[in-house]
Write a structure and sequence with these properties.
The chain has about 70 residues and is α+β, with helices and mostly antiparallel strands. It is built from one helix and three strands, in the order H-E-E-E. Bound molecules: zinc ion (ZN).
Amino acid sequence: MSEDRTLEEFASTDETSTTGPTDENEDGTVESVEPATPAYGWGSYTCDECGETTERVWWHSGGVVCPACKEW
Ligand SMILES: [Zn+2]
């Protein structure tokens, strides 16, 4: 019956030895590399004007706008 205890000890020791392998996973890393000029963007964004979720946006003075709200 001592085998069961050994397994548990092994499992807990294994967990403690791993001290977070992935530490650099922060949000907003993409936003720091923001171009000065209004640029086209791909991804999952929310339009600042209408609040709709869009996959294509244009950067617009500190925010993003969807193609429908973009002033041409
Ligand atoms: Zn919009």
